[in-house]
Amino acid sequence: MAVEHAMAWSKRQTIDDFIQKSKQGKSNGDFIMHRECGTLVEYNPSTSRAVGKMKATITQRFKIGGDDAMGIEPIVFDVDCDSRFHFFCFRDNDTWRVKYVKLIYEKDKIVPVDGKTSPSFTKEALDKYPAGYKYLGASQSMLGHEIDVSLPTIQGPEHGAANVLWLDLYEKVEQWLGGAKDVDLTNGPGQAETNGKASHH
Protein backbone atom coordinates (compact mmCIF):
# COMPACT_ATOMS: atom_id res chain seq x y z
CA MET A 1 0.00 0.00 0.00
CA ALA A 2 1.16 3.55 -0.72
CA VAL A 3 0.73 6.62 1.41
CA GLU A 4 -2.04 8.99 0.40
CA HIS A 5 -4.57 11.25 2.01
CA ALA A 6 -8.30 11.63 2.48
CA MET A 7 -9.58 14.48 0.37
CA ALA A 8 -12.78 16.47 0.72
CA TRP A 9 -14.80 13.71 -0.93
CA SER A 10 -13.16 10.58 0.45
CA LYS A 11 -13.67 10.88 4.23
CA ARG A 12 -11.84 8.79 6.84
CA GLN A 13 -10.84 5.33 5.61
CA THR A 14 -7.98 2.90 5.24
CA ILE A 15 -5.42 3.55 2.53
CA ASP A 16 -6.54 0.50 0.52
CA ASP A 17 -10.10 1.85 0.38
CA PHE A 18 -8.80 5.28 -0.58
CA ILE A 19 -6.78 3.85 -3.47
CA GLN A 20 -9.79 1.89 -4.72
CA LYS A 21 -12.01 4.98 -4.57
CA SER A 22 -9.33 7.01 -6.35
CA LYS A 23 -9.23 4.44 -9.15
CA GLN A 24 -13.00 4.63 -9.48
CA GLY A 25 -12.84 8.41 -9.61
CA LYS A 26 -10.14 8.30 -12.28
CA SER A 27 -12.27 6.00 -14.42
CA ASN A 28 -15.16 8.47 -14.02
CA GLY A 29 -13.07 11.38 -15.23
CA ASP A 30 -11.50 12.79 -12.05
CA PHE A 31 -8.20 14.49 -12.89
CA ILE A 32 -6.39 15.42 -9.66
CA MET A 33 -2.74 16.27 -9.11
CA HIS A 34 -0.59 17.69 -6.30
CA ARG A 35 2.18 20.28 -6.40
CA GLU A 36 4.57 20.05 -3.47
CA CYS A 37 5.65 23.45 -2.16
CA GLY A 38 8.17 22.37 0.49
CA THR A 39 8.34 20.01 3.46
CA LEU A 40 9.42 20.55 7.07
CA VAL A 41 10.09 17.57 9.35
CA GLU A 42 9.88 17.60 13.14
CA TYR A 43 11.95 14.73 14.54
CA ASN A 44 12.32 13.46 18.08
CA PRO A 45 15.32 11.07 18.18
CA SER A 46 14.51 9.95 21.73
CA THR A 47 11.18 8.45 20.63
CA SER A 48 12.03 7.67 16.99
CA ARG A 49 8.98 9.66 15.93
CA ALA A 50 8.62 12.31 13.26
CA VAL A 51 5.92 14.40 11.63
CA GLY A 52 6.38 15.63 8.08
CA LYS A 53 4.54 18.86 7.28
CA MET A 54 4.23 19.27 3.54
CA LYS A 55 2.81 22.38 1.92
CA ALA A 56 1.04 21.39 -1.27
CA THR A 57 -1.51 22.58 -3.78
CA ILE A 58 -4.26 20.16 -4.72
CA THR A 59 -5.32 20.90 -8.29
CA GLN A 60 -8.29 19.34 -10.04
CA ARG A 61 -9.65 19.95 -13.54
CA PHE A 62 -13.37 20.24 -14.24
CA LYS A 63 -15.46 20.55 -17.39
CA ILE A 64 -19.08 21.66 -17.37
CA GLY A 65 -21.68 22.33 -20.04
CA GLY A 66 -21.06 22.41 -23.75
CA ASP A 67 -22.98 20.97 -26.69
CA ASP A 68 -21.06 19.72 -29.71
CA ALA A 69 -24.19 19.53 -31.85
CA MET A 70 -24.94 23.21 -31.22
CA GLY A 71 -21.32 24.29 -31.34
CA ILE A 72 -21.26 25.36 -27.69
CA GLU A 73 -17.89 24.99 -26.02
CA PRO A 74 -17.77 23.61 -22.45
CA ILE A 75 -16.30 25.64 -19.59
CA VAL A 76 -13.00 24.06 -18.55
CA PHE A 77 -11.44 25.22 -15.30
CA ASP A 78 -9.12 24.13 -12.51
CA VAL A 79 -9.61 24.45 -8.77
CA ASP A 80 -6.38 24.97 -6.82
CA CYS A 81 -6.52 24.30 -3.08
CA ASP A 82 -3.55 25.18 -0.86
CA SER A 83 -3.17 22.70 1.97
CA ARG A 84 -0.79 21.26 4.55
CA PHE A 85 -0.25 17.49 4.68
CA HIS A 86 0.79 15.98 8.03
CA PHE A 87 2.54 12.59 7.92
CA PHE A 88 2.66 10.87 11.32
CA CYS A 89 5.81 8.71 11.06
CA PHE A 90 7.59 6.17 13.25
CA ARG A 91 10.83 4.25 12.90
CA ASP A 92 10.60 0.47 12.66
CA ASN A 93 14.18 -0.84 12.88
CA ASP A 94 15.83 0.82 9.87
CA THR A 95 12.59 1.66 8.05
CA TRP A 96 10.49 4.79 8.43
CA ARG A 97 6.77 4.11 8.23
CA VAL A 98 3.68 6.31 8.11
CA LYS A 99 0.76 5.66 10.45
CA TYR A 100 -1.58 8.51 9.53
CA VAL A 101 -1.88 11.28 6.98
CA LYS A 102 -4.03 14.28 7.81
CA LEU A 103 -4.60 17.61 6.07
CA ILE A 104 -5.36 21.21 6.88
CA TYR A 105 -7.10 23.08 4.05
CA GLU A 106 -6.01 26.73 3.81
CA LYS A 107 -7.64 28.40 0.81
CA ASP A 108 -8.74 27.66 -2.73
CA LYS A 109 -9.57 29.41 -5.98
CA ILE A 110 -10.87 28.85 -9.49
CA VAL A 111 -8.34 29.07 -12.34
CA PRO A 112 -9.79 29.48 -15.86
CA VAL A 113 -7.93 27.22 -18.28
CA ASP A 114 -8.31 29.68 -21.18
CA GLY A 115 -7.41 32.61 -18.94
CA LYS A 116 -10.85 34.24 -19.08
CA THR A 117 -13.77 31.81 -18.67
CA SER A 118 -14.84 30.35 -15.35
CA PRO A 119 -18.12 29.30 -13.72
CA SER A 120 -19.91 31.58 -11.28
CA PHE A 121 -21.07 29.79 -8.13
CA THR A 122 -23.82 31.37 -6.08
CA LYS A 123 -23.10 32.46 -2.52
CA GLU A 124 -25.59 29.85 -1.35
CA ALA A 125 -23.70 27.07 -3.14
CA LEU A 126 -20.34 28.16 -1.70
CA ASP A 127 -21.63 28.74 1.82
CA LYS A 128 -22.30 24.99 2.16
CA TYR A 129 -18.55 24.42 2.52
CA PRO A 130 -15.78 25.79 4.76
CA ALA A 131 -13.74 28.71 3.42
CA GLY A 132 -10.62 26.55 3.12
CA TYR A 133 -12.08 24.39 0.34
CA LYS A 134 -15.38 25.98 -0.74
CA TYR A 135 -14.66 26.02 -4.49
CA LEU A 136 -13.21 22.51 -4.39
CA GLY A 137 -16.22 21.26 -2.44
CA ALA A 138 -18.76 22.93 -4.72
CA SER A 139 -17.00 21.67 -7.85
CA GLN A 140 -16.54 18.11 -6.59
CA SER A 141 -20.20 17.95 -5.57
CA MET A 142 -21.10 18.51 -9.23
CA LEU A 143 -19.40 15.18 -9.95
CA GLY A 144 -21.62 13.44 -7.42
CA HIS A 145 -19.10 13.26 -4.57
CA GLU A 146 -20.39 13.51 -1.01
CA ILE A 147 -18.37 16.32 0.57
CA ASP A 148 -17.17 16.19 4.17
CA VAL A 149 -17.83 19.67 5.58
CA SER A 150 -15.89 19.21 8.83
CA LEU A 151 -12.28 18.94 7.66
CA PRO A 152 -9.64 21.11 9.38
CA THR A 153 -9.15 24.58 7.89
CA ILE A 154 -7.32 27.66 9.12
CA GLN A 155 -10.56 29.64 9.14
CA GLY A 156 -13.23 29.37 11.80
CA PRO A 157 -16.98 29.73 11.33
CA GLU A 158 -16.38 33.50 11.48
CA HIS A 159 -13.52 35.49 10.01
CA GLY A 160 -10.55 35.47 12.36
CA ALA A 161 -11.96 32.77 14.65
CA ALA A 162 -9.82 29.78 15.59
CA ASN A 163 -10.83 26.42 14.17
CA VAL A 164 -10.73 23.82 16.92
CA LEU A 165 -9.93 21.01 14.48
CA TRP A 166 -6.58 22.39 13.35
CA LEU A 167 -5.64 23.41 16.88
CA ASP A 168 -6.45 19.89 18.03
CA LEU A 169 -4.35 18.45 15.21
CA TYR A 170 -1.25 20.28 16.42
CA GLU A 171 -1.85 19.05 19.96
CA LYS A 172 -1.92 15.51 18.55
CA VAL A 173 1.32 16.19 16.67
CA GLU A 174 3.02 16.96 19.98
CA GLN A 175 1.56 13.82 21.57
CA TRP A 176 2.84 11.70 18.67
CA LEU A 177 6.32 13.20 18.79
CA GLY A 178 6.35 12.62 22.54
CA GLY A 179 5.96 8.88 22.00
CA ALA A 180 2.24 8.30 22.56
CA LYS A 181 1.38 4.76 21.48
CA ASP A 182 -1.42 6.14 19.35
CA VAL A 183 -3.27 9.43 18.94
CA ASP A 184 -7.00 9.90 18.52
CA LEU A 185 -7.61 11.77 15.29
CA THR A 186 -11.19 10.60 14.88
CA ASN A 187 -12.69 13.99 15.72
CA GLY A 188 -11.24 15.24 12.44
CA PRO A 189 -12.70 13.04 9.67
CA GLY A 190 -10.17 13.81 6.92
CA GLN A 191 -7.67 11.09 7.70
CA ALA A 192 -6.13 8.16 5.88
CA GLU A 193 -4.64 5.26 7.82
CA THR A 194 -1.72 3.39 6.27
CA ASN A 195 -1.44 0.69 8.93
CA GLY A 196 2.27 1.41 9.24
CA LYS A 197 3.24 0.32 5.75
CA ALA A 198 6.60 1.52 4.52
CA SER A 199 6.69 4.97 2.98
CA HIS A 200 9.12 6.04 0.29
CA HIS A 201 7.97 9.69 0.20
Please explain how this structure is put together.
The protein has one domain (13-178, 188-193). The two termini are 13 Å apart. The chain is 20% helix and 35% strand. By secondary structure, it is α+β, with helices and mostly antiparallel strands. A hairpin with a 2-residue loop joins β4 and β5 (95-112). The chain has helices spanning 15-27, 123-126, 134-142, 164-177; strands at residues 13-14, 31-44, 49-64, 75-92, 95-112, 191-193. The chain has a 6-stranded mixed β-sheet with strand order 1-6-5-4-3-2. The relative contact order is 0.22.
Q: Helix and strand layout, with pairings?
A:
Layout: E1 13-14, H1 15-27, E2 31-44, E3 49-64, E4 75-92, E5 95-112, H2 123-126, H3 134-142, H4 164-177, E6 191-193
Parallel strand pairs: 1-6
Antiparallel strand pairs: 2-3, 3-4, 4-5, 5-6
